[in-house]
Amino acid sequence: MKPRPDQALSLNMKLLSHHELQGFGGIGEGMGMQLARDGRRILWLAHESAPKNFTAVDVTDPKNPRVVVQTELPHAKVRSNSLDVVGDIMAVAYQTSAVNTKPAGFDLFDIGKPENPKLISHFDASGAHSRGVHAVWFADGEYVHMASGAPDFQPTNPADDQFYRIVDVRKPAKPEEAGRWWLPGTRVGDSAPPPARHPKFDSGFRAHNTNVFPQRPDRAYVGYISGGAVILDIADKSRPKLISHWRYSPPYTGFTHTVLPLFERGLL
Question: pTM of the full predicted structure?
Answer without folding.
Answer: 0.94
